[in-house]
């Protein structure tokens, strides 16, 4: 068994066990909460029968309410610890800022119906199976390569003529940096750079899990990444992504108004982040100045300000100019 298969199977087992433990913990917690609530309701139901029994049941009600409050305090403390791990600060002060933190960042928008993107005569889909079928028809078309005979193993540096038109390349020290073996120190720094509180991939293991178990995992991950450097591959589930649709704007029944976001597993994102950090030292010399975003030392706001100023200049001087905006129709992002 290769390192990739070993790590892949191990993380999958851990994911399934954590899912089971989470369900058991939630079941036992709900069961205990229901039991305490019923005990309080029982005591309250006994009040009013007669004066003597009221004294007894009043004491029991007070004691059971105390047990209920202690349970709620422990439940809130556990919730606060979970939010703290995700980097979310909680507060008991009844301030405007505290209430804002309790509100969801984005209002969830449900897909209730979907029109077929191409065949206008087809009926509007209203159930999950039909809506998924319409969405697949649309996104399979725009996200499928127009070069069906290409293989992932093809060396495009040798076979594609597009590389002949490039006048920039990584210097020798950059190529050596990209090809050097992965170390535990470098991978630890990479993990610390990754954002917390993000949706996990299909294995359900977020960055917080890797941070908590890093001493156990780092050795196997270093071995895995170094095997990939020597020609190996990531495990099957490590490269599996879940494509989820997020509503953008406009008609909710139009497939084009839903943007796909790909939820990837952390092992895949760790390797991508490690390589991106290495390449980031040389990207300003490889990418032209008109590319403002995603390049170290540059900002997309420079391009935004330039576009606004250009529009103001065109309007002020009444220039006979056409301005085109190309929206990201595919909108594929990684989460």
Written overview of the protein:
This protein is mainly α. The protein folds into two domains: 26-102; 154-334, no CATH class. It has helices spanning 3-46, 51-85, 96-102, 128-142, 156-159, 172-179, 184-193, 207-212, 214-229, 266-280, 283-286, 300-317; strands at 242-247, 258-263, 333-334. It has a three-stranded mixed beta sheet with strand order 1-2-3, with no helix packed on it. Helix 1 (3-46) runs antiparallel to helix 2. The longest helix is centred in the N-terminal third of the chain and has 44 residues, at 3-46. It is extended and about 95 Å long. It starts with a helix and ends with a strand. The model has no long low-confidence stretch (mean pLDDT 84).
How many strands, what sense, and barrel or not for the largest sheet?
Answer: 3 strands, mixed
How many domains? The number is 2
The rough form would be described as extended
Structural class: mainly alpha
Q: State the distance separating the first and last CA atoms.
A: 30 Å
Q: What would the average pLDDT be, to the nearest integer? A: 84
Calculate Rg over CA atoms: 28 Å
Strand fraction equals: under 5%
Low-confidence stretches: none
């Amino acid at each position: 068994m290769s390192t990739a298969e070993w790590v892949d199977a191990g993380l999958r087992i851990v994911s399934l066990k954590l899912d089971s433990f989470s369900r058991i913990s939630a079941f036992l917690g709900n069961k205990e909460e229901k039991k305490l609530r019923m005990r309080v309701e029982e005591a309250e139901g006994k009040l009013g029968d007669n004066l003597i029994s009221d004294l007894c049941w009043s004491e029991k009600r007070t004691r059971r309410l105390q047990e209920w409050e202690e349970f709620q305090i422990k439940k809130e403390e556990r919730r606060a610890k979970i939010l703290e791990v995700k980097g979310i600060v909680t507060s008991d002060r009844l301030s405007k800022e505290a209430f804002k933190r309790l509100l969801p960042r984005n209002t969830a928008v449900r897909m209730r119906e979907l029109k077929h993107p191409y065949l206008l005569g087809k009926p509007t889909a209203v159930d999950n199976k039909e809506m998924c079928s319409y969405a697949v028809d649309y996104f399979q078309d725009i996200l499928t390569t127009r070069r069906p005979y290409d293989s992932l193993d093809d060396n495009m540096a040798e076979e594609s003529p597009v590389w002949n038109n490039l006048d920039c390349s990584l210097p020798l020290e950059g190529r050596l940096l990209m090809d050097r073996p992965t170390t535990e120190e470098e991978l630890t720094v990479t993990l610390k750079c990754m954002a917390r509180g993000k949706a996990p991939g299909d294995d359900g293991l977020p960055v917080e899990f890797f941070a908590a178990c890093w001493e156990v995992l780092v050795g196997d991950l270093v071995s895995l990444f170094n095997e990939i450097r020597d020609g190996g591959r990531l495990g099957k589930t490590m490269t599996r992504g879940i494509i989820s649709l997020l509503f953008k704007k406009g008609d909710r029944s139009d497939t084009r108004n839903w943007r796909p976001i790909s939820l990837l597993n952390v092992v895949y994102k760790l390797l991508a982040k490690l390589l991106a950090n290495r390449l980031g030292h040389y990207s300003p010399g490889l990418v032209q100045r008109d590319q403002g975003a995603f390049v170290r030392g540059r900002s997309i706001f420079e391009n935004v300000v330039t576009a606004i100023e250009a529009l103001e200049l065109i309007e002020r001087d009444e220039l006979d100019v056409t301005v085109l905006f190309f929206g990201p129709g595919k909108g594929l992002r990684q989460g």
